[in-house]
């Protein structure tokens, strides 16, 4: 088995794609108007319109996640946090050094999903 991706279902595809383009610094691949994805080493982040899961009878509901954190390892947590300039209501945790040594900043995407920008301690 091979891990393929994490997919976010949304009613605001363009808004979420724009947010993650800003976070990742890359343009999303858009193979269709209702789907986008970001590739990178080890993982794919996919974003799809709620129209793509209509046949699942409401099993997936956009903007209701309260248990999954989307994480991006970055070289400069403080610099990326400053570049993104999140609104105060979207900040979950200002850049902080965690007890285990990682530097992290947590913010919410336009659907309310928590995004962790982190760097590992240098050896």
Can you walk me through this structure?
The relative contact order is 0.20. The strands form two sheets. Strands 1-4-3-2 form a four-stranded mixed β-sheet, covered by helices on one side. Helices cover 16% and strands 37% of the residues. It contains two helices and eight strands. It has 123 residues and is of the alpha/beta class. The chain has helices at 13-24, 77-84; strands spanning 6-10, 29-32, 35-40, 43-49, 69-73, 91-97, 103-108, 114-119. The protein is globular, with a radius of gyration of 15 Å.
Largest sheet: number of strands, sense, barrel closure: 4 strands, mixed
Number of helices: 2
Q: Would you list the SSEs in sequence order as H and E?
A: EHEEEEHEEE
Approximately what portion of the residues adopt beta-strand conformation?
35-45%
General shape: globular
Q: Quickly give the structural class.
A: alpha/beta
- As residue ranges, the low-confidence spans are none
Specify Rg, calculated over alpha carbons.
Answer: 15 Å
Helix content estimate: 10-25%
- Strand line-up of the largest beta sheet: 1-4-3-2
Question: Mean pLDDT across all residues, rounded?
Answer: 95
* Strands, count: 8
> How far apart are the first and last residues' alpha carbons, in Å?
32 Å
